[in-house]
Write a structure and sequence with these properties.
Oligomer: heterodimer
Order of helices and strands of chain A: HHHHHHHHHH
Number of helices of chain B: 9
Structural class of chain A: mainly alpha
CATH class of chain B: Alpha Beta
Number of domains of chain B: 1
Distance between the termini of chain A: 51 Å
Order of helices and strands of chain B: EEEHEHEHHHEHEHEEHH
Helix content of chain B: 25-40%
Number of strands of chain A: 0
Distance between the termini of chain B: 42 Å
Bound molecules: adenosine-5'-triphosphate, magnesium ion
Radius of gyration of chain A: 21 Å
Number of helices of chain A: 10
CATH topology of one domain in chain A: MetI-like fold
Number of strands of chain B: 9
Shape of chain B: globular
Strand order of the largest sheet of chain B: 5-6-7-3-8-9
Largest sheet of chain A: none
Largest sheet of chain B: 6 strands, mixed
CATH class of one domain in chain A: Mainly Alpha
Chain lengths: 234, 238
C-alpha cells in the first residue's frame, strides 16, 4: 500500500516537473497515434461516405467485413503485421519491424474499421435526408460524397476522436510490432505495462494519469461537438 | 424565352413498385407554356408522377422523351419537394450550393445568393442554419434554391401545404413571377383555390392514372367525368 502511495506522489511530482522520460514517451505516443489517425481518416471517412451513397455489389460484404474487423483482437493485428514486416516476411526488406512506422501501420489497421463504421452510420442518416435533393441536382458520385463529408463533419469528427481514443490506449499490437524499445518505440501503454511489471509504479502511474487525462479530454470533446450539433450552432 | 425542353412526350410511361404499378401507363404530351396543376385525392400518385417526370424515380416501362438531350433536360429542371430538404448549412450555403455545382465562381455565386435571400425576405437570416428555419421559411428557401439556377422547368410538390394565408400568397407571388419570366411550372396541390389561381391547365390523377387533362377553365367549369365533379365538390372520390 505504501508502495502505491509513494508511487502516486512521485507520479504527481513527475507530472508537475515535466519529467524528461514522461514527456518523451507522451510525445512519441501522440506522434504515432496522430499520424495513424490522419492516415486512417483519409481512408475511412470517404469509405464511410461511399458506403452510404453507393449501392455497389460488394457493399454488404464490405460492411460485414468492417464489423468483423472491428471486433478483431488488436494483438492478432499485431501478429499479422509482424509476420508481414519480419525479416523473412514479404515486406521484410523494408526493415520496418520495431520502428514507429510499424506501430503506425498496426494502429491504422485497427482504427480504419472503427472510424469507417461510425462514419457510415452517421452519413447513412444524412444521405437519407439528402438523397432526393442531390439526385435532383444531378450531382456526381464524387460531389455527393463531398457534400456528405462536409455537412456531416461534426459526426465525422466524433468518429475520428473515437479512433484516437482506441489507438492511444491500445497496447497489444504495438507491443508486438514496436517491441517497446527505450527511446525508440516505447509509448504510454507499453511503458505502463513494462514499469508495472518491474514494480516501478511511479512512472507507470504518471503515464497512466496522462492517458486518463487524454481519455477524459476526448470524451468531453465528443460531448461538446454533439451538443453544438443538436443546438444547431454552426 | 421558350425553352427547348418541350414538347415532352410520355408514351406508356409506367412506375412500378414490385409488381404493382404505382403510375400509368401514361401517354401524354406536354407543351412549352403554361402552368400545369396536378390534382387528385391523397395517394392518387401526384408525388410519384412528378418524380417520374423529373427522372428521380426510375421508369418501369415506356419512355419519356424531351426535345433535347436527356442530360441537358435534367440540368434545366429543378424540384421543390413536398417536405423541403434543408442542407445542414446556413441559408446562404443552401443557396450557393446549386450555383457552385454549376461551376459558378464563388464571389458571383455569393452575390446572387444574397440577392435571392433578400427577395424571399430572408436577408437578415443569411447565416442562420437552414434546418432551424420555420416551415414557411424553409418552403421559401427551397423554392429560392430551386429557382436560383434559372431552370426552364420547375416541379413543385404541394409547395404550400401547412402554410398560412400570408405565406401562401408570398409563394404564389414568387411562382407567378417565375412563370411570367418564362419558367414552365408543373405543380401538385390540394388547395383548389390555389389551383384556380395559378393553373392554365389541369391534370386530374386517380389511382395512378390520368383521368382528365385539359385547359384549367374547362376543367373547373365543366369537368367531363363524374369523379372530377365529385372531387371538385369536395366529395370522397372512389
Ligand atoms: N416507395 C414506395 N413504395 C411503395 N408504395 C409507394 C411508394 N411511393 C408511393 N407509394 C404508393 O403510391 C401511391 C401514390 O403515392 P403518392 O405519394 O404519389 O401520392 P400523392 O398523390 O402524392 O398523395 P398525397 O396527396 O398524400 O401527397 C400511394 O398509395 C403510396 O402508398
Ligand atoms: Mg404527395
Amino acid at each position: 500500500m505504501s508502495d502505491l502511495l509513494s508511487g502516486m506522489s512521485q507520479a504527481f511530482w513527475m507530472l508537475l516537473t515535466l519529467d524528461a522520460d514522461l514527456v518523451e514517451i507522451t510525445l512519441r505516443s501522440l506522434r504515432v497515434t496522430l499520424t495513424a489517425l490522419v492516415i486512417a481518416s483519409v481512408v475511412a471517412l470517404p469509405l464511410g461516405a461511399l458506403l452510404a451513397v453507393r449501392r455497389f455489389r460488394a457493399r454488404r460484404l464490405t460492411i460485414a467485413m468492417l464489423n468483423a474487423l472491428m471486433g478483431l483482437p488488436p494483438v492478432v493485428v499485431g501478429l499479422v503485421v509482424y509476420v508481414f514486416l519480419s525479416r523473412s516476411g514479404p515486406l521484410g526488406v523494408m526493415g520496418l519491424l520495431f520502428t514507429p512506422t510499424a506501430m503506425v501501420i498496426a494502429q491504422v489497421i485497427i482504427i480504419v474499421p472503427l472510424i469507417a463504421s461510425i462514419a457510415h452510420q452517421a452519413l447513412r442518416e444524412l444521405w437519407s435526408d439528402y438523397h432526393d435533393l442531390l439526385i435532383s441536382l444531378n450531382t456526381t458520385q464524387f460531389q455527393r460524397v463531398q457534400a456528405l463529408i462536409w455537412d456531416g463533419r461534426r459526426a465525422l469528427l466524433t468518429a475520428a476522436l473515437a479512433g484516437f481514443g482506441r489507438a492511444i490506449g491500445e497496447v497489444g499490437a504495438i507491443m508486438v510490432v514496436g517491441g517497446n524499445i527505450d527511446h525508440h518505440t516505447r509509448v504510454l501503454t507499453t511503458a505502463i505495462a513494462l514499469e508495472t511489471g518491474k514494480g516501478d509504479f511511479a512512472l507507470a502511474l504518471g503515464l497512466g494519469f496522462v492517458l486518463i487525462f487524454m481519455a477524459i479530454a476526448v470524451n468531453l470533446a465528443i460531448h461538446v461537438i454533439g451538443r453544438t450539433e443538436r443546438e444547431g450552432r454552426w | 424565352m421558350v425553352s427547348n425542353l418541350f414538347p415532352v412526350v410520355l408514351s406508356g410511361a409506367t412506375l412500378r413498385r414490385g409488381q404493382k404499378a404505382l403510375i400509368g401507363p401514361v401517354d401524354l404530351t406536354l407543351q412549352a407554356d403554361g402552368v400545369t396543376v396536378v390534382i387528385g385525392p391523397n395517394g392518387a400518385g401526384k408525388t410519384s408522377f412528378l418524380r417520374m417526370l423529373h427522372g428521380i424515380a426510375r421508369l418501369g416501362a415506356g419512355s419519356i422523351t424531351w426535345s433535347c438531350d436527356p442530360l441537358e433536360a435534367r440540368q434545366k429542371q429543378a424540384f421543390v419537394f413536398q417536405h423541403p430538404v434543408m442542407m445542414r448549412r446556413s441559408v446562404l450555403g443552401n443557396l450557393i450550393y446549386p450555383l457552385r455545382l454549376a461551376k459558378m465562381a464563388r464571389p458571383k455565386a455569393r452575390a446572387l445568393a444574397i440577392k435571392a435571400a433578400q427577395d424571399i425576405g430572408l436577408g437578415d437570416a443569411l447565416d442562420r442554419p437552414a434546418p432551424f428555419l420555420s416551415g414557411g421559411e424553409r418552403q421559401k428557401l427551397a423554392l429560392a434554391r430551386a429557382l436560383i439556377t434559372k431552370p426552364d422547368l420547375l416541379f413543385l410538390d404541394e409547395p404550400c401545404a401547412s402554410l398560412d394565408g400570408r405565406a401562401t400568397r408570398e409563394i404564389e407571388e414568387i411562382l407567378t413571377r417565375a412563370a411570367t419570366a418564362g419558367t414552365r411550372l408543373i405543380m401538385s396541390t390540394h388547395d383548389m383555390g390555389q389551383a384556380r389561381r395559378l393553373a392554365t391547365e389541369t391534370l386530374f390523377l386517380l389511382n395512378g392514372n390520368i383521368h382528365e387533362y385539359g385547359p384549367a377553365s374547362t376543367f373547373f367549369e365543366r369537368p367531363k367525368t363524374a369523379q372530377a365533379c365529385a372531387f371538385l365538390k369536395g366529395d370522397i372520390v372512389e
